[in-house]
């Protein structure tokens, strides 16, 4: 299953796509005696919400060493984003980089992620949530997270998200240039 593992880096096998494949990856991430995976990519593999929920469970496991997760183009929606946000608030989660671009995340998912960014346990430095549907309300929630003292985020990609001038202005006002 982990034929694409290179030291601490894993390119998830395409033949394993689906939520059940993500559950298998989740199990592997918890087995530190077997794998020392710190970065994982599974793109356009049909992970969906159920797979994101399985990966979130692994992120909450003390044995999981994952620092970077890229699940771009996987039909992850708000339920998956909410599960990942809950994992980010867990003290065991070591994730620094999350790429969830080109999915189906809307305002509810963006708000859940924004709440996680305000949590003292969240270690996330980089978030790519481009090409979703977070709209102005989602961007405003992320802007509020930037103003929070606990937020450690320094890189955010929110391009192409149905955000209007009001949302862009709110976020721009939150940035320290």
UniProtKB/TrEMBL annotation:
Domain of life: Eukaryota
Keywords assigned: Leucine-rich repeat, Repeat
Keyword Cell membrane attached: no
One GO CC term, this protein: axoneme
Primary localization class, coarse: cytoplasm
One Pfam family this sequence matches: LRR_6
Subcellular location(s) of the protein: Cytoplasm, Cytoskeleton, Cilium axoneme
InterPro entries (UniProt xref): Leu-rich_rpt, LRR_dom_sf, NLR
Name under which the protein is recorded: Uncharacterized protein
Organism for this UniProt entry: Cymbomonas tetramitiformis
Taxonomic path: Eukaryota, Viridiplantae, Chlorophyta, Pyramimonadophyceae, Pyramimonadales
């Amino acid at each position: 299953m982990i034929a694409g593992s290179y030291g601490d880096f894993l390119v998830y096998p395409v033949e394993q796509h689906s939520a059940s494949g993500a559950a298998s990856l989740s199990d592997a991430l918890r087995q530190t005696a077997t794998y020392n995976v710190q970065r994982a990519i599974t793109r356009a593999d049909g992970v969906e919400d159920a797979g994101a929920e399985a990966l979130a469970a692994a992120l909450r496991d003390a044995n999981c060493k994952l620092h970077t997760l890229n699940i771009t183009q996987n039909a992850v929606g708000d339920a998956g984003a909410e599960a990942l946000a809950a994992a980010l608030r867990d003290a065991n989660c070591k994730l620094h980089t999350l790429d969830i671009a080109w999915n189906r995340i809307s305002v509810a998912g963006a708000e859940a992620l924004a709440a996680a960014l305000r949590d003292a346990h969240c270690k996330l430095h980089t978030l790519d949530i481009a090409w979703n549907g977070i709209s102005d309300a989602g961007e405003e929630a992320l802007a509020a997270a930037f103003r929070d003292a606990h937020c450690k985020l320094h890189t955010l990609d929110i391009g192409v998200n149905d955000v209007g001038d009001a949302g862009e202005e709110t976020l721009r006002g939150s940035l320290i240039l």
